Amino acid sequence: MLKVGVLGAGHLGKIHLKLLQESQRYSLEGFYDPFTENAQKIAKEFGYKLFNSIEELLDAVDVVDIVTPTLSHFDCAKKAIEKGCHIFVEKPITKTVLEAEAIRTLASQQHIKGQVGHVERFNPAFTAVKDMIDNPMFIETHRLAEFNPRGTDVPVVLDLMIHDIDIILSVVNSKVKNIHASGISVISETPDIANARIEFENGCVANLTASRISMKNMRKSRFFQKDAYISVDFLEKKSEVVKMKDVPETPDEFAMILQNAEGIKKQIYFDNPEVQANNAILDELETFADAIENETTPIVSLKQGTEALRVAQMIIDCF
Question: Locate the GFO/IDH/MocA-like oxidoreductase domain: which residues (predicted)?
């Protein structure tokens, strides 16, 4: 089992601690959090070992799970890599693209594995259909959340939209050509609502909307491609696939058939793939263990985390 330690014991850090404690792939050695009073309370309540410093924790583990505020990701990751520890870093990978590139370079030089916590890649609604998403040409995403002070230290693009940016980059096999975006601050000092249009070199267009001051929560994405429409509800864990195929010689009398202006007929098929229940955070952590032990590339690599941040920053620069 891989020895793992957690940096950061906030809301998400506590979830990671619990899951790593339960995991059959890791041995949880303990955690470190600079907010001593809260850290001692958590250690006492759950029985986790509390280290006195980052350095003390790094000396005791093989893997570091970095669940600290984004502003500290770079320093924590750098220290971990220099100590020879593999790193799992919550999204976004770092505060700036320059920091992310530096972490990538250092990890490569030290032969260290790294994964970024873009957890929606492990959402069962997405994994149920991702192999069906083939050369999408129009993508629409909506990620809306009720206001929560946690996370408002960064723009909504880095807080919420970056999930969808990563998903889109994982299914569009083309370089970004152009970006148009707008964002406004309503409650926070940074933008709370943002909309972006990403144009790719292959002609694909993605329209993304993110808000953290909505009246209801929504996390939906729609992918349009030749003869198919795929819908993913990340919140409700549901997905739907609508396909169009050539009409057979003897169609069923209840078949839904469309005919275009040129007289070409297509039959519509509806498919609701089976969505297997899972714990996405546990899955991302355990697939990272697989990557370390099998010497394979993590599902969300440091490079992919960097590219998601790069596009996010391009969007922010439009404001």
Answer: 156-216
Percent of the chain as helix, strand, coil, to the nearest 5: 35, 30, 35
Q: How far from 1 is each of 5, 25, 63, 91, 179, CA to CA, in Å?
A: 13, 5, 11, 25, 44
Count other C-beta atoms under 10 Å from residue 266's C-beta: 16
| ∠ CA 176-180-181, rounded to 5° | 120
pTM tops 0.90: yes
CB count within 10 Å of CB 293 equals: 12
- Residues 6 or more apart in contact with residue 214 via CB below 8 angstroms: 144, 145, 146
**C-alpha closest to that of 26 among 318, 312, 281:** 281
All structural domains of the chain, each given as residue ranges with its CATH number in brackets, are 2-119+280-301 (3.40.50.720), 121-279+312-316 (3.30.360.10)
Predicted confidence pLDDT, tens digits, the chain (319 residues)? 999 999 999 999 999 999 999 999 999 999 999 999 999 999 999 999 999 999 999 999 999 999 999 999 999 999 999 999 999 999 999 999 999 999 999 999 999 999 999 999 999 999 999 999 999 999 999 999 998 877 677 899 999 999 999 999 999 999 999 999 999 999 988 999 999 999 999 999 999 999 999 999 999 999 999 989 999 999 999 999 999 888 887 777 777 778 787 778 888 888 889 999 999 999 999 999 999 999 999 999 999 999 999 999 999 999 9
* Single-letter code of the amino acid located at 120: E
With a CB cutoff of 8 Å and minimum separation 6, the contacts of 178 are: 198, 199
Residue 34 — φ and ψ, nearest 5°?
A: -70, -15
C-alpha 198/C-alpha 136 separation (Å) is 13
Which residues touch 217 (CB under 8 Å, ≥6 apart)? 144, 145, 146, 235
